[in-house]
Design goal:
Neprosin_propep; alpha+beta; 21% helix; 3 helices; Glutamic_endopeptidase; Neprosin; globular; 353 residues; single chain
Length: 353
């Protein structure tokens, strides 16, 4: 009997321990399920809040960058071009320029010394004969989708920082470069064939540009850039568009594309930076170029040029070097840089990739 009683007690103990173990396992699984449910609920509630905050930042940015206009032009490619009074363009967001107006047109020499260029720079928005009134400039309106494609307001309109190379390979960034150095230069010019290459995804781009640089190719790199680019991420399509860019610190914290930040004053009322160029070159067909010239010049003796695009507010000169105009509390001596843009048909059959 003793033996039988011991066996029964052992069996009961085993069953009890298994039952307790099962209850602990079920309790643990239930806790995990409840924890997951709570975490999922929190994520679900936090996600809309983050999205709402992001959209609010985008809307605040758009209200700052899209200036009041006196005329609106709808381009065939879907762009909206706003004719913004010259003194309201982004350059005049600088504290020391607010309330001021652009300088009067530079001194025009007598006809004997006058250098003129036929104004010819066609963009889709102006092909119907539209233009902005004198005293205003055309600015491509930035949309919410433009900013959202960049994933953040901070990234929008800025180049990603990457090492500056003079060769033609590296990092998936394929390019050909022609450059000169070793002297003191006051400007440069180039004639660039315009194409509409098809990029394979939304985050690829293709461009051809003239690029003025100074500095040691380190943190002090300064650039002024102009040309055409195809960039679905920036513009949302595959049109070749006229663009400008500048930086004072190797693309780290300063600079932007086009008129998306303070940096220079535009004076021309017929060219929209960031707008699509038309016509474009075709293989074994007609070829079209844009001529670009960027140079430093004295305002007191400047040949009149009908296609003068911009006066860059360059970097104030201090004993420690160049300063970014966006961050200055006051403006001192500034250098004036200008871009000449013209467009013409050529007979050559070159391809820019």
């Amino acid at each position: 009997m003793a033996s039988s009683s011991s066996s029964s007690s052992s069996t009961t103990s085993t069953i009890t321990s298994k039952f307790i173990g099962l209850m602990l396992l079920l309790s643990l699984q239930l806790d995990l399920l409840l924890g997951s449910a709570i975490h999922l609920k929190n994520q679900t509630s936090f996600r809309p809040n983050r999205e709402i905050q992001k959209l609010r930042r985008v809307e605040a940015y758009l209200s700052k960058i899209n200036k009041p206009s006196i005329k609106t032009i709808h381009s065939p490619d879907g762009d909206v071009i706003e004719c913004v009074p010259s003194h309201l363009q982004p350059a005049f967001d600088h504290p020391q320029l607010q309330g001021q107006k652009p300088l009067d047109s530079p001194y025009r020499p007598s006809k004997g010394n006058e250098t003129t260029y036929e104004e010819s720079f066609n963009q889709l928005w102006s092909m119907s004969g539209e233009s902005c009134p004198i005293g205003s400039i055309p600015i491509r309106k930035t949309t919410k989708n433009d900013v959202l494609r960049a994933n953040s307001v901070r990234r929008f309109g800025r180049k990603l920082r990457r090492p500056i190379r003079r060769d033609s390979s590296g990092g998936g960034h394929e390019h050909a470069v022609v450059f000169v150095n070793g002297e003191q230069y006051y400007g440069a010019k180039a004639s660039i064939n315009v194409w509409a290459p098809r990029v394979t995804d939304a985050y690829e781009f293709s461009l051809s540009q003239i690029w003025l640089i100074s500095g040691s190719f380190g943190h002090d790199l300064n650039t002024i850039e102009a040309g055409w680019q195809v960039s679905p991420e920036l513009y949302g399509d595959n049109y070749p568009r006229f663009f400008t860019y500048w930086t004072t610190d190797a693309y780290q914290a300063t600079g932007c594309y086009n008129l998306l930040c303070s940096g220079f004053v535009q004076t021309n009322n017929k060219i929209a930076i960031g707008a699509a160029i038309s016509p474009r070159s075709s293989y074994n067909g007609r070829q079209f170029d844009i001529g670009l010239m960027i140079w430093k010049v004295s305002l007191h003796f400047l040949p009149f040029i009908s296609t003068l695009l911009t006066i860059f507010l360059s970097y104030s000169i201090h004993k420690e070097g160049l300063k970014n105009p966006e961050n200055l509390k006051y403006l001192t001596l500034c250098t004036y840089l200008m871009i000449l843009v013209k467009q013409h048909e050529t007979n050559t059959h070159s391809i820019i990739c």
